[in-house]
Amino acid sequence: MKQDKTDHMTSPQNGTEQVKKEKKKMGLSTKIFIALGAGALFGVLIHYAMPACYFRNTILINGILYVLGNGFINLMQMLVVPLVFCSLVCGSMAIGDTKTLGTVGVKTIVFYLCTTALAICLALGVASLISPGLGMNLKEVEQAAVEQTDKVNFADTLLNIIPKNIFSSLADGDMLPIIVFALFVGIMLAKLGSKASTVANFFGQFNDIMMEMTMSIMKVAPIGVFCMIAKTFSTVGFSAFQPMAKYMLCVILALALQCFGVYQILLFAFTRLNPIRFVRKFFPVMTFAFSTSTSNATIPLSIDTLHKKMGVSKQISAFTIPLGATINMDGTSIMQGVAVIFISQAYGIPLSAGALATVVATATIASIGTAGVPSVGLVTLTMVLGSVGLPTEGIALIMGIDRILDMLRTAVNITGDAVCTTIVASQQKCLKGEVFERD
Question: Which of 207, 231, 246, 337 could anchor a disulfide with 132, C-beta 3.0 to 4.6 Å?
């Protein structure tokens, strides 16, 4: 009887544990992935099965789907400036030692810039082999309605890093000056110690508030993802992909080589960690980045995943991840490298070795301070094309399918941030190997 009673008491607990396990399987990442597939299917059905009418175009696509999808993006972007500012203040303050902070900062920036330059070279090589622009005639393509930007001036880029008015930079979302000021504040707080404990506690608590707000907003992420993907596919469909198949192939191949080749080789070379395990654990974050097309929106999820699944100290990730969302745009640089070859071949304008070197330098510099928001790469692409005298009219055709590629390159961008963070954390002895090895 005693044994039966024990069995009777334990069975509900076992059932509860099973229910908990089932709930864990249906986490946020799973919901986002389901929303991604459902949105794509719904968008394709709208494009091919629903005839063009006022309800389809105005109410459904440019009304409900547009408002809900972009509303979610606006919610995430609302948090970007305070989140990045507080994260970097707390991150630099937590590292404490100025010498250590300088070491981490130099390693991070050098890694980001080197991988960006490497990504552009990889893209130029892949595009040169496949030759996506041969046989195309872009002279009939209408001029692209893309915002024109000035050519990159390296001296001005350096000077613009120093904020003239931090409140103006915060209001405009100018990330590089914000990063510099946040790091300066964090260093001073660490230096003053107990003398500035009230201010330090304020930033720590405000950072917790921003993280909590972000996680709360992310609960509606599946709805936002569904609407964004549905709108994209309802507009583009599948037929628009055909004329640009070779261009897309080049970009996707280069992105895959960078993400699953270059990054994972660097990860293993510097840390001896299992790249396959890393990709498997970080894949939900890549999926979220793919669906939102914004590096900034993934900052909290990246930091949380690196800490809980990889064993990376938040002292490191709170510094490197927000920084990477601003200056590490490898996926965007790959698109620009392929686009340069594509447009030059389509217009029959050969590029010399010096011109290709200019492309590498310009795209690398242009990636510094680029906002981590959807499709910003098209704007900076005008800089790159202008630096080697290529016509910007060719962007018109690229714009048609850029949304899909933008999703892929955003996933590559945040993966590069995570790999860099893991490498730096390993070198600084701030990585728990047992957490990384745990399934």
Answer: 246
**Does residue 425 register a pLDDT over 70?**
yes
The candidate with the shortest Cα–Cα distance to 404, out of 260, 256, 261, 238, is 238
Taking 50 as the threshold, does the pLDDT of residue 147 lie above it? no
CB 427: neighbour CB atoms within 10 A?
A: 15
C-alpha distances out from residue 93 to 206, 310, 421, Å: 14, 22, 17
Label residues 243-263 b or e (16+ Cβ within 10 Å = b). Answer: ebebbbebbbbbbebbbeebb
Report the length, in residues, of the chain: 439
Residue 276: both structure tokens together: 């396959």
Distance, CA of 258 to chain centre: 14
* Positive/negative CA dihedral, 177, 183, 184, 186: positive
**Whole-number pLDDT of residue 142:** 40
3-state secondary structure of 312: strand
Contact present, 226 and 42 (Cβ < 8 Å)? yes
Q: What is the pLDDT of residues 45-59, one digit of tens each?
A: 998 888 888 888 889
Q: What is the radius of gyration, based on Cα positions, of the chain?
A: 23
Per the CB < 8 A criterion, the answer to whether 275 and 267 are in contact is yes
Q: At what angle do helices 402-427 and 314-327 cross, to 10 degrees?
A: 140
